[in-house]
Amino acid sequence: MIAAMRSVLHLVWMGVTVLPYSFVILGLAAAGVRGERLYWWAVRWLRWSIEGARLIMGLRYRIEGYENLPLGETSPAILLVKHQSTYETFLMPVIMPHPLAYVFKKELLRVPFFGWAMGRLDMIHIDRSQRAQAFNKVVAQGRELLDRGVWVIMFPEGTRIPRGERGAYKTGGTRLAIETGAPVIPIAVTSAKCWPRKALIKRPGVVDVSIGAPIPSQGREPDELMRQVEGWIEAEMRRLDPEAYPQE
Questions:
Q1: Domains and CATH numbers, the chain
Q2: What is the share, in percent, of the chain residues with pLDDT greater than 90?
């Protein structure tokens, strides 16, 4: 009962804060604020949501491997992240030292306020019905953003996966890495221990985030590179959350 009450309170907190902050982002964009400045303004709301989860629901995070992130203001990177809940979607911009560009379907831009604000940021929104053109757009925008020091983030499983399960790893992220020459950073996240997929009730606890060493993409094949990424992420998930994989 307490967990349910805290979960509802956190949901209310996000709902109450997202509306005025969306207007802030839209107002700043209308005033000519662009790029990295606007991005870090948007991250403030994500930080409020993550901090709210800690204070209201007792949901904390712990990071390993932060030293594996590339150094340098324009050092490129493509983050390929295990996807179990909304939590890591909010958390990654909060903990990363570079602006992030998510690759997402354009339908999200229609979400009132939140989607409208996202549309003002340097993100990569695609039309999934036009596969070839969509990937060409990802490569063109991805290369431009990477050159500016913006890191591209993708969830190779494509959707949120229940705890203890493995989704089908798609090669879009490794194809982009090979096209741009950027290294791949695999990231394992155990968010479903506390914030299960599509669940209203969240539980207090610690979400582990493990950042792997950069994997060079030059001279690689997309399938082969993704198998290496998948192998590292899934092995790391079993190390971080062994209770979710009792038969292995």
A1: 2-244 (3.40.1130)
A2: 72
